[in-house]
Amino acid sequence: xAASNPGSLKTEQESExxxxxxxxxxxxxxxxxxxxxxxxxxxxxxxxxxxxxMGSKIDxxxxxxxxxxxxxxxxxxxxxxxxxPKPPEESA
Length: 92
Fold this sequence. Notes:
Elements: H1 6-78
Family: Belongs to the HSBP1 family.
Keywords: Stress response
InterPro entries: HS1-bd
């Protein structure tokens, strides 16, 4: 029967080809999405790592500043302050 109607056979082949093409496209898109997700996750991990590293450096810098302040305060407390000469009092 199919031989008597060649158009019917062609339609079935096109339908199978279309189904295969759709399946191929779906697989391609899914693969692409997985690759994108992997890359975004890697970027996200890298960014978080760099932010943590910057946080540690900021903490170290803050500690160094506090140490310098303490050192300056200790030096200021041990050194006698030079007395400024007082202006002469006017006698009336």
